[in-house]
Each structure stands twice: as structure tokens, then as C-alpha cells.
Amino acid sequence: MQQNWNLNLNNIPEELHLILNLLSVKNTSESPKIDWDQFIDLAKHHRAYPGLASKWVLMEESIPSKVKQTIKQLYQRNTLYMLYLSAEMENINKLFQTENINLLFLKGPLLGTDLYGDVSLRTSNDLDILVPIEQLEQAEDLLLHQGYVKDEYFDTQFNDWKWRHHHLSFFHQEKGIKIEVHWRLNPGPGREPRFSELWARRRGIKETYTLAKEDLFYFLVLHGARHGWSRLRWLMDIFQMLKLEMNWEEVYLVFKKYHQIHIAGQALILVSVLFNSPLPKGTERFLQNKRSHLLAQKAIFYFERRVSLHSSSVPKDIADYHSRHLFSLMSIQQKCLFILSLYYPLPEDVQVLPLPKLLRFLYFPLRPVTWLLKKTRKHVLT
């Protein structure tokens, strides 16, 4: 199934067009004037160099040898790191099994093997694992005993972390490895599959467990959309998943249950257009509303410029656009929960208006006051 979605791609850099062309199903030999330094920078930013490393034969004459050598070196370096990360994945898996902690690997090198058939064909900076929230403290203690250090990046004094956040980060200084321990697939507020459901449908891959294909598709789509698909790697994962046999009826029911059909439609349209790829039979039901098309066009913003949302200093115009885009992705139910969550106290409220512990219940009715104080102080500082 292939349709003409007429997305406006005019402002996407020619260098990214070439990367997409090299990775697409129907590759052509067209080669416009390319800034090869920009090409390499975009290949690194979008984590596309593993896929490009196996595609040079398609445009052997048009790509400078220096560029090919750089991409090859990036690919080789990534291969070594993926093997290194795979060894730690196996170590963590054995440790958690010994302690009877139910563990699902979400991404990392296992995803390279699962989707691409080769651990070297996908990049990963860390290991992402999912555990039941009841075993979260046990998992934390186990990692701390292995020399990992917890990143205390959020405050837990209002006990809202369970629904407002979705993972804890741990870093091993000597190994140089980060592990993100999830108790939810996505940050809240919002409903999603329970761990017990995901565990019941799990798949085994080389003595490890991961999500069922249908659950993995759901997770990867929502993860990529939440980041605006600002790295092409996340959309490449969806592109690879569409090559697998999946029960699209089950996939549809999961997205329908959690009111996310429009986000699946966004991902499918982006894959179809950017990779010039037909969509598999069974995906038609995701594409029956205009909202998916509008969201797909909004996501093109992230391909027109190099957006690093994890940067410590995201430009204000990009941060504002991303906030609006995140809100536009929400279902009506999520928007209602999000607006209600604004009335729930935040740890910063304690700094703005200090109160004794016995009176902290007052932060709930005083939430509009603390919000206004923060806005006023921020305005004064700027």
C-alpha cells in the first residue's frame, strides 16, 4: 500500500535527502551538489552511519573516498562498542535472573539483532531495561552494588515520580556505560500496558527477554514521536519493523485502547514518504484520519534543522515548538490529565514558598500561587 501524502520536504537539507535516498527502498543515482562535511555531521546526528556503511556500492563513484572512509570508521567504532555493550547486557541479565527480578530489554544492542539482524547495524548509547515497579528498589540496589551510580535528576518528596517520570538513570564511571531502568514505557500522565501484560507476551532472544513485536512497535512509535523523530534512527527502527511479520489487528487494538492511533499513523506516513516505502497490508486503519497527516507534516520541522533535544541548551524557538508538538500528540484524555497535573505540586514549589513538612498539604491549594511566583521571578531574572 502506497499513497501520495504530499508532505512538504522542500526545506530539508540536500545532504539529508541524500542520506534518505541511500537508505530508501527505491534508491536512485541522483547526486546534487553536496556539502560533504554537512553530510557526515547529519549522518552522525541521525545515527545513520551503520546503515550507510552497507550502501556505498549503490553510489560508489559519486561519494568521495574520504567521506566513505569516515563513515566506515564510525561504523567500525560503533561495532566495537555494541559488542562491548552486549557483554554488559548479558552480565546484567544474569545478575537480574539470579535475584529473580523480571527484566525486559527495551532497546540497546538487542534491538540491532532483533530488527536489523546484526548488532553492528544500529547505534545505542546505553541499555534500556524495564522492570515491574514492585522490584524497582531491588533493581536499584543491585546496580549500586555493581558500581553504578544513580543520577538523582528528580525529587521524590511529593511522591509524584511514579506517574510523572518513567525511568531512573545509572552510570558506571569505569565501564563508561549508562543504564536506564524503566518502570513505565513512557512518562505520564497517561495509561499504558501494565508490566504483567508485557511480561506475559514477552519474546526470548538469546537467553534474554524483550517485548512482543506488537508491543515493541507501540513502544518505538511513542518513543520516536515523543522526541519529534529528531533522530532518523528512530524512524529507521520503524522502517525495519515494517519488514517483519506482525499481527496488525493486535497492533491496532493496542493503539486504540490507549487512544494513540493518530501517532501510529504519523510514523507510518513518515516512513512511507521519507523512505519511499510501500506500507504493509493491515496498516490502512491507522491512516484514516487527517490528524496523522498533519502530525507527520509537523514532524518535518525536526528534519529541516538539526535538533538535539537532549542538549543542555535547546534554543527557545525549538523548545517552544517541541512543547506545542508534544501537546498536539496527546489524546483528549491525555490533555485532560496533563492539565490536571499542572495543579499537582512540584518540588520547585518548596523552594519558591518554603513550608514545614506538616503543612505541605497546603501546596495543593496553593499551587496557582507558587506557579505565579515562579513566573514572576523568572520574568524579573530575564
TrEMBL record:
- Gene3D superfamilies named among the record's database cross-references: 3.30.460.40
- The protein's name in its UniProt record: Renal dipeptidase
Per the UniProt record, the source organism is: Bacillus yapensis
The record's listing under Pfam families reads:
NTP_transf_5
The organism sits in which domain of life? Bacteria
